[in-house]
Specification:
This protein is an alpha+beta fold. It contains eight helices and ten strands. A hairpin with a 2-residue loop joins β7 and β8.
Amino acid sequence: MASGEDAIAFSQVDTERFGVRVARALITPENLFRVMASCAAQTISLLIVRCATQNLSTVQKMEGLGFLLMDTLVYYSFDLVKRQIPSHSVDAQVRKFLPEDRVQIERVAAEAFAGYYGHYHADPKLDSRKCDEGYVSWAVRSCTSKEVATEVLVAERDHQIIGFATLRSNSPEEGEGVLFGVAPEAQGLGIYRAFMVNGMLWSSEKNAKRMVVSTQINNLAVQKVWCRLGFEPARSYYTFHKWF
């Protein structure tokens, strides 16, 4: 998601997947109309934006301009300085990703995110099958590009990958758990919790002061895990799509 005074970021990945020119931006009270002008200048067909939920007057202006709400994203944060990282045990080995794991990660992502209702699936103008492909592509690119993920962890049992987690170092002070996937047959075994604890340990080893995670507001299952681990709500954003 682009940030800055009036930046839009052209999304090559989304453009190739959906066959229309797609850009992304972070909308603020100051840059809405400059972002719109940038889209016109670059002949953007679909603009995907996030806007902080406290900026309600800006949200109302966006609604008047034809922006459609697709989801609400909530962020939680764990204070690595003041709080102790919980212990965990799980019947699987959690380790760093190896290049030969990529094929199995792709399989797990395809199974775990089939029909996952994020902002892509919320848009009726986008092909559902291609929306599913977006999460699989994200997982695969995390294995090959440090710009997408700083670290990738996998959970392995009986020589089979049953889950993966992608982590990113946002700054010297902040680590983020970005994308998590657990194979359907392994859900309910504590794999996700193990990934969260390992993400906290990884962030701490990087001397980060906090770890953050985010999800759609209606994804209550993972938020319950975060709360039990000691994460607290931090901030939230609306995701809008604007078709030109």
